[in-house]
Design brief:
This protein has about 250 residues and is mainly alpha-helical. The chain has one domain (about 1-245). About 75% of the residues lie in helices and about 0% in strands. The chain is built from six helices and no strands. The chain has helices spanning about 20-40, 50-95, 110-130, 135-140, 150-200, 210-245. It is globular, with a radius of gyration of 23 Å. About 25% of the residues are buried.
Length: about 250
């Protein structure tokens, strides 16, 4: 767990102190900016293999997450923020399996919380822009509910919409990344122990158990790549759904 809280290495004792996690975040942002710039600066009618891959990924996010959830008009309107959420989440997640980096900075609750707050204020903005202050009534007062239980339902709906949503967005992303990191650490530390300590230093053939832990480590690495993409998808589509609910005329 100490890897999630490294010591500062740049600009020590200043308001701009930077540790390894912050440097990885900056690296992800730069890499994403370069990828999008290179991929879009010379688009061709007959696409290259790289352009096909890029358009397949971005097309999936655009069509299957954004447009399918929000429709063409509202989807195009909120596409920049949803694209940013998806690819930034994916980039920050995937660093957990990249050699030399090997940490998903979304495993720190602060990063996930900031992204959840962006989603939170985006769907509130969408609702306020569409409905004004009636948005809060739409989100908390269910039609057809008996009048004597309206206050109770309104409180529960307010908690669900304005408190639980950002909390669950934050915790889901953070906990998945922490769990994945711990599984990988466990497998590869066990591999190192069996091969180096047991097999090499002690000459004990039980050290061959390291083959199994190494295989599990590779399998969990593949699983972590899948989880990294899945969590980016889940975070983005939930944000899109919250925006869609905020835009709806009724709860």
């Amino acid at each position: 767990m100490e890897e999630f809280f490294p010591e500062p290495i740049l600009f020590l004792n200043t308001p701009f102190e930077m540790n390894r996690i912050l440097l990885i975040r900056m690296l992800v942002v730069v890499v994403l900016a370069v990828i999008f710039w290179v991929a879009t600066r010379n688009l061709k009618v007959v696409p290259t293999k790289g352009q096909v891959v890029f358009e397949t990924i971005t097309g999936f996010v655009r069509n299957n997450i954004i447009i399918e959830t929000l429709g063409e008009k509202d989807g195009r309107r909120f596409m920049p923020v949803l694209f940013t959420i998806f690819f930034l989440t994916l980039g920050l997640n995937i660093t957990g399996v990249i050699p030399g980096l090997q940490i998903a900075s979304t495993g720190l609750i602060g990063q996930a919380l900031i992204m959840a707050l962006v989603a939170y204020f985006t769907f509130i903005y969408a609702g306020m822009r569409r409905h004004g202050f009636r948005f809060f009534k739409n989100q908390t007062v269910l039609p057809g509910v008996p009048i004597f239980i309206v206050p109770v339902i309104a409180i529960l709906e307010a908690l669900s919409t304005f408190i639980i949503r950002p909390v669950t967005l934050t915790l889901r992303l953070t906990m998945n990344m922490v769990a994945g990191h711990m599984l990988l650490v466990l497998c590869f530390l066990a591999t190192n122990f069996f091969f180096v300590t047991v097999l090499v230093e002690q000459g004990n053939p039980l050290g061959l158990l390291g083959v199994g832990t190494f295989a599990f480590g590779i399998a969990f690495t593949a699983l972590e790549i899948f989880v990294a993409a899945l969590q980016a998808f889940v975070f983005t589509i939930l944000t899109a759904i919250y925006i869609q609910l905020a835009l709806a005329d009724e709860h």
